[in-house]
Records
---
Amino acid sequence: MRLVRFRRDDRIATGVLEDDHVHPLRGTFFENPVPTGERLSLAEVRLLAPTIPSKVVCVGRNYQEHAEELGNEVPEEPLIFLKPSTAVTGPGDPIPLPTLSHQVEHEGELAVVIGRLARHVPAEEAGRFILGYTCGNDVTARDLQRADGQWTRAKGFDGFCPLGPWIETALDPTDVGVECRVNGERRQYGRTSELAFGVGTIVEYVTRVMTLLPGDVLMTGTPAGVGPLSPGDVVEVEVEGLGVLSNEVVPGD
Ligand code: MG
C-alpha cells in the first residue's frame, strides 16, 4: 500500500494512492485512519513529504564503498546523527543551496518510517514498529562537514532532507536497489543487501538511545558516488519497488 500526504487547495490530508487516484483518509496513519469515501485524481493534488517526523536519525558510512570514497572505514557500530525536522521537504520541493557552503552533495538513501512508539526494540521485532519505507536524500554540505568536526550544520539546513513520494508499506528492505540520478545520469547505486547495518539492527541501536515516535524517520546510509549539486540540477532518488523522489536544486540564502 502507498500512503501519501497531500495538499489540495487549503486542505492537507493523508490518503492511500492506488494507480492514479488518491483515496483520502480521516486522521493520521497512526490512529486507525478511516477512508472518507472520496476519490481524487493524482493530478488534482500536490504530494507532500509523506511524514512530519519529530526527528530524522541517520546512519553514516553504512556502505563500505561510500565510506572508502570519503577516506573512512565502516565503523564497528552504527554511526548515527540527527537531521532537524525543519530540514524535511517533499517531492518536487526545491533544495536550496545555502550561501554558507560551496560544496553541497546528494546522498540518496532508503528511509524507514516508524509507525509506533519504539523504545528498546530488538532487531528481530523491528518490523512491528515500522510503518513503511520511502526515498530520502541526506543532502550534505561536504565542506562544512569536513570543517566542523561534527555534522549539525552540514546536514541541518532547511530543505536538506527531501522525503517521498509516498510510504510503501509492503517493501521488503533486505535487498533493494538504491539509485541517485542527477539530470537523468546515474551518480549513485547500491543495494541494501550491502548495508553494514541492516534496518533491524539500526532500529535496535537507535531505540536503545532514544524513543522513536510515530512518523520518525531513519535514514539508512548512502551508497558510493556522492557528488556536488549546482543550481538547476534535478536530483532523483529511486528505491527499487518503491518510487522516485525528484527535487530541483535552487540558489538559497
Ligand atoms: Mg547519509
Note: The chain has two domains: 2-48, 56-251.
---
Amino acid sequence: MSSDLPRKIVLLGTGGTIAGSAADADDNLGYTAAQVGVAQLLRAIPESVLAPFEIVAEQVAQLDSKDMSFVVWRQLAQRCTHWLAQEGVQGVVITHGTDTLEETAFFLQSVLPAGLTSEKPVVLTCAMRPASAYFPDGPQNLADALAVASDVPAKGVLAVCAGRIHSALHVQKVHPYRLDAFDSGDAGPLGFVEEGRVRWVCAPVPILVLSTANVEQARCSAEPTASALEVLAQLTIWPRVEIIMNYAGAGGFMVDAMLARSILDPLHGLVVAATGNGTLHHDLERALLRAQDAGVRVVLSSRCHNGRVLPRSDAQFPDSCGLSPVKARVALMLDLMLGVAGA
Ligand code: SIN
C-alpha cells in the first residue's frame, strides 16, 4: 500500500474507564465507566494526529470490563474477524476497560483465525483516568494504539498502554491506579511508542494459544484455529470453570461445595492459583483430587506474578504452561468447548 494513502483502521468500542465520565474533572476515582461513545473518544485526539488514518468506528458494547460477558467476547471476535478479512483494513483497535483487558486479549488471540492475525494486528487499549479528567491518559493511549495498528511489523493481538506494547500472552494488569498499569513480567514489553513512532524490541510473533494442554507447541504452530469461532457461535452455554486459590489455612470447603451443587449447576473445570511452584494445602489438594475423580478438569497455575509452575513428573494435576490463573481459565474453557483433551 502506498504510504500517502490513508491507513484504514477499524476502532471497536467496548467501554471502560477510557470511556468513563465523572461529575467533576478533578475526580479520577468516583467516575462511571463506559459513558462516552467510541466516535467521541476520537474527538479528543488532534486532527494532525488523525490525519494519516481513515477510521471506521463501531460500538460493540458499552460496559465496565469487570462485567465482561461471553456474549460480548463472541461478538467482539466476530467483528474482529469480519474487519480483518476486509482488504484495505490494516488493523483493528479496541478500546477496553483495564480490569479484564488481559482476558479479552488472550481470548481473542486464542480464537481469531491465525490466517488473519498473522497478517494484521488487533490492538487493545485503555485508560486509567476517565475521559472527563483534567489530564486523561486515554487520548494518548488511543493515538499510540492507532500508530501500532498501522505499523507494518505489528501482528497478533497486542495491548498498548502508557507507551508500552505488550503481547496478549504476557500482559497483566499489575497496578490499580498508576497510569502505567500493565506489565509483561519476565517476557518484558514487545516495544514502545515514542512521539508517535513505534520501536519494537521483540518481533511480534502471532502466538497461537488454543489449549492449556498444548500451549508450548501451539506458540510455535502455524495451524489456523479455523473452526474455533464457528464452534463458539453455536454454544449458548459455556462450560463453568472457576478459579480457586491456595493460601495459608486453605481447605477443601469451596471445592466440595461446588461439587455438591454440580448436579444443578455443572462444574467443568477448576484452575488453581497455587502457591509458589504449584504447591497446595493438603486439604485443598485432597478436595481437588476428589473433583478430578468426579470428572472436573483441574489445572495448576501459580499465584506468583512472574515465572511459571515448572512441570514435575509426580504432579497430580497438569500445569497451565505458564498461563496466569485468569488466562488458564480462558484456555481451559476453550479446551472444553473445542474438545481438546487434557495433558
Ligand atoms: C473497566 O475495567 O472497565 C474499568 C476500569 C478501567 O478501565 O480502568
Note: DSSP finds eleven helices and 13 strands in the chain.
